[in-house]
Design a protein that fits this description.
Number of strands: 0
Order of helices and strands: HHHHHHHHHHHHHHH
Structural class: mainly alpha
Distance between the termini: 26 Å
CATH class of the largest domain: Mainly Alpha
CATH architecture of the largest domain: Up-down Bundle
CATH topology of the largest domain: Growth Hormone, Chain: A
CATH superfamily of the largest domain: MFS general substrate transporter like domains
Strand content: under 5%
Largest sheet: none
Length: 399
């Protein structure tokens, strides 16, 4: 099969999965209302998301290593099947422990994102990866706009129906992957064997962090993603508390986020890559995040809506311009036989941030609504400083 055709199928599958995953997010509080008192919904909801992130943290490097040994396609199918089972169990429900079991199964098999990123790394030249990672992010953005709208409509009929539909979407993705996605990792480029150490997440971390460039990039990425997650986890409550706005305004902001995300990754990034190096684009993206979070800090003291609108545009455009080139650069820090392990480690770290950041940011937010965004701006400046000092790879600088 033509390699580019396979890549576009992967992008399509990413959009399809984005629709499925985001379809159920707005309905979780209502589903939990069937099992726990209203006063406990927020606590249980936090526990469910944390359990999923913890399982993902433990399992993602292992699935990444498996994809290095057995290929991307088979691991992608296994991961998607785990999501089918997980969402179906949540839809069946009947008891709170079944909801948790569904999230645990989905979390423990959540290797699809790292496998998709490894697939792109296998199938593209270094100077094309940033563009294709941008397409992946854009596809997820399209899904995140369509999914909640469909979920809201289906949820008005039955609160559990969207979970079964999502399971069906994941099953459709399994069938499409089996029939139309070709294997990207040739047998001669695979890891030759797995050992009992392959089951240990910490061993994967130790091995990846022993590689200097991967270590520096992952630490730099930590500053960036923690800063970004601070914005993502506090945006709604910040708009509610500081600007005294309701669901319609917050929903409008989220639509703006989706539009800016798609524009930056799918439209703006490919055009800029024709004129600028990925290094330059990444620096612009980091500056956007730093400026946007700084504007949110200012808006906590000068609550002007225009500041929020400009801040959101800066943050989301900055993310869209930095994230794909960063992942492209990260993929160059290891050889092909370790792409799955690297992407699994990266996904595992992302899950860890999703556990830690909400807790830390919430504690700071109760002290000062604006301080949390000031900290986010400082962290993004640390990421910018580290990135500027990185040496440029000769074949990477030509976009």
């Amino acid at each position: 099969m033509n390699k580019k055709r396979s890549l576009w199928i992967i992008v399509g599958l990413t959009a399809l999965n984005g629709v499925g995953m985001t379809m159920v997010f707005p309905l979780v509080p209502f589903l939990l209302g069937k099992y726990v008192p209203a006063a406990q919904i927020a606590l249980v909801m936090g526990a469910i998301f944390s359990v999923y992130a913890l399982c993902q943290f433990l399992a993602a490097p292992f699935f990444g290593a498996l994809s290095d040994r057995y290929g991307r396609k088979s691991i992608l199918i296994i991961s998607l099947l785990g999501s089918v089972v997980g969402y179906a169990l949540i839809g069946i429900g009947g008891a709170l422990w079944i909801i948790f079991l569904g999230r645990i199964i989905d979390g423990l098999t959540a290797g699809n994102i790292s496998t998709l990123f490894a697939y792109i790394a296998d199938s593209t030249e270094p100077n094309e990866r940033g563009k294709w990672y941008g397409y992946l992010g854009g596809a997820m953005g399209v899904g995140s706009i369509i999914g909640p709208a469909i979920g809201g409509l289906l949820g008005s009929t039955s609160i559990t129906l969207p979970f079964f539909v999502t399971a069906g979407i994941m099953l459709l993705s399994v069938i499409l992957t089996a029939l139309f996605v070709s294997e990207s990792l040739a047998p001669e480029k695979r890891t030759m064997r797995l050992t009992p150490k392959s089951l240990n997440t910490l061993n994967h971390f130790r091995e990846i962090f022993s590689l200097r460039e991967a270590r520096v990039l992952l630490i730099m990425g930590a500053f960036f993603y923690v800063s970004l997650n601070i914005w993502q986890f506090n945006a709604s409550i910040f708009l509610k508390d500081v600007f005294l706005r309701g669901p319609s305004f917050i929903g409008g902001i989220l639509v703006l986020v989706g539009i800016c995300d798609i524009l930056s990754r799918v439209v703006l990034l490919p055009q800029l890559l024709k004129k600028w190096s990925e290094r330059t684009i990444s620096i612009v993206g980091l500056c956007g995040l730093a400026i946007g979070t700084a504007l949110l800090f200012v808006s906590a003291h000068i609550p002007l809506v225009v500041l929020v609108l400009v801040a959101v545009a800066c943050i989301v455009l900055g993310e869209g311009l930095f994230d794909p080139p960063y992942n492209a650069r990260l993929s160059l820090s290891v050889d092909e036989s370790k792409q799955g392990q690297l992407q699994g480690t990266n996904q595992s770290l992302q899950a860890l941030y999703h556990v830690i950041v909400p807790l830390g940011a919430a504690a700071i937010y109760t002290y000062s609504h604006g301080a949390v965004f000031g900290i986010a701006s400082i962290l993004s400046l640390f990421a910018l400083g580290m990135f500027v000092t990185l040496k440029t790879k000769e074949h990477y600088s030509l976009a």
